[in-house]
Amino acid sequence: MTIENIELDIRGQVCPSCLLLTLRDINKHHSALSEGRVRLTVLIDSRDATSTIPPAVKNMGLAAQVDKVEDYYRVVIARPEERP
Q1: What are 5-19's pLDDT values in tens digits?
Q2: At what angle do helices 17-28 and 49-59 cross, to 10 degrees?
Q3: What is the pLDDT of residue 81?
Q4: In the beta sheet, which residues pair with residue 62?
Q5: By the 8 A CB rule, do 77 and 40 touch?
Q6: Contact 3, 39 (CB under 8 A)
Q7: Do the beta carbons of residue 47 and residue 14 sit within 8 Å?
Q8: Which of 29, 35, 37, 71 has its CA 20 to 30 A from that of 63?
Q9: Is the dihedral of CA 52, 53, 58, 63 positive or negative?
Q10: Looking at residue 15, what is its pLDDT?
């Protein structure tokens, strides 16, 4: 099965806006994320969001991996078994 990657680029936003925008997209694609058909990649430059998004994602039954990339962060959200 091919996993569709959806990218949400919200660099320039600050918390709580980063968290709210991310949760909006998770809710929009929650069934596909839960089934492993979709992976959501969120690009952020707010360091605070790297500590608020992963726990919220976990509470929704999904997994989040945060990676530092140059001057921003990449948060990949997927079902736990599909975690990159």
Answers
A1: 999 999 999 989 999
A2: 30
A3: 78
A4: none
A5: yes
A6: yes
A7: no
A8: 71
A9: negative
A10: 86
Task: Give the three-state DSSP class for 62.
Answer: coil
What's this model's pTM, rounded to 2 decimal places? Answer: 0.92
The residue whose two tokens read 């990657």 is 5
Determine the residue type at 64: A
Return the residue matching tokens 């058909």: 37
Residue 30 C-beta-side C-alpha neighbours within 13 Å: 10
Q: What is the mean pLDDT of residues 26-53?
A: 96
Measured between alpha carbons, how far is 79 from 64 in angstroms, rounded to an integer?
9
- CB contact at 8 A, 60 and 29: no
Spell out the domains of the chain, with CATH numbers in brackets. 4-82 (3.30.110.40)
